[in-house]
Amino acid sequence: MTDFFITLLQKEIAPFLHDLAPIGTMLLRGVFFCAFILIAGFIVGWGREKLQARIRMRRSLSLKRMFCRFCVRMLKRSAVPDRAQKTLFVAAPLFAFVFSLFFFFFMPVNSKYFLQNDFSFLYFLFTASCGVYAFIVGGWSSGSRYSFFGAIRLIAQSLACQPVLTVVVVTILMTAGGTDMQTVIRAQKHLWFIVPHFPLFILYLLSTSMMLAQAPFGSPKSNRELSGGIYSEYGGALYALFLISENVLTLLCAVVGSILFFGGTEPLFGADRQEVWLAAKTAGILFVLMLMKECLPDWRTDRIIDISFKKYLPFSLAWLTVTASVLYCFQGGRW
Q: Which of 23, 33, 82, 169 has the greatest CB tally within 10 Å of its CB?
């Protein structure tokens, strides 16, 4: 009987485990990568707290205290309002959490471990905007007027910022001569795109702030007249998932901005640490986004829509036209 099991192990089970090992290795690396992104998102929240404390001239919370507060919030029971659409109310933060982590697997770092990084920016832009709708669904399904009006404001801001963001990304892709991340990064080997396209970088920061509903576009989450807006009925672990998703999406927008305008993993001074350069560029954009959130006042939603469609969008379209003309006349379709 022992010889039979040994023979079975050698002929059947061992080849099966050998074929299964690459999949298990990939899943394990994916789990560690998700854990790394969550830790990075937590550090983003801690950095925002440090910057906020410095601006308001108060003592900031320590990293240990913030972690303890986060653990307490995760252990709290999440109450579901009676008037809420219970399935959507619970699924919205989970969907936002999964969606925010999903796109980091396409980042151009360690491509031999994860998915291929010849990923089209156009598809990325189309699907990344869908993550905002998890916050909209969460506000609508809460059964509260505050949350409902916050969701309406977020819908209006999303519809106003997405055309501008699309034109900005298309202009950069036209300049790079391709739609995948590696082409955009290689095109900035000698000159970062922020030099010729600095106004588009400003529009990118404003559009991402509008999409994330942070100042000066934080009216969907206003505490004065909406008592938290889309988050007004959330608490406990569900609210913590929304906060994590918001930090991770902010980090994602900073990474994409570093790829589009600062060359992403393209090193300087002959250095070869691609991950370090990407992290440094991302940290710089994160600092600017946090500074905007803490220092700028909120605008009304009607003014946001007005300035987006009457100023941001025409300017971005004009810049796209000028860029296309220059590329066509002088460089044969490349910068």
A: 169
Q: Which amino acid is at 177?
A: G
List, in sequence order, every residue forming a beta bridge with 120; answer none if it has no partner. 180
Alpha-carbon gap, residue 121 to 260, rounded angstroms: 10
Return the exposure string of 232-266: e unless at least 16 CB atoms fall within 10 Å of the residue's CB, then b.
Answer: bbbeeebbbbbbbbbbbbbbbbbbbbbbbbbbbbb
The two three-digit tokens of residue 26, written as one number: 């990939």
Triad 24, 30, 32: Cα angle to 5°: 105
| Residue among 136, 129, 78 nearest 99 (CA) | 129
Q: Where are the domains of the chain?
A: 2-330
Single-letter amino acid code for the residue at 273: R
> Cα(328)–Cα(28) distance, rounded to whole angstroms?
47
Which residues on neighbouring strands pair with residue 180, listed in sequence order?
A: 120
Helix (H) or strand (E) holding 152: helix 145-176
Q: Summarize pLDDT for 188-241 with one digit per residue, the tens.
A: 888 889 989 999 999 999 988 888 887 777 777 776 666 667 777 787 788 888
Question: What burial class does residue 129 get, using C-beta atoms within 10 Å of its C-beta: 0-12 exposed, 13-18 middle, 19+ buried?
Answer: middle
* pTM of full prediction above 0.70: yes
Closest to 172 measured CA to CA, from 237, 103, 100, 263: 263
Rounded to a whole number of angstroms, the CA Rg of the chain reads 23
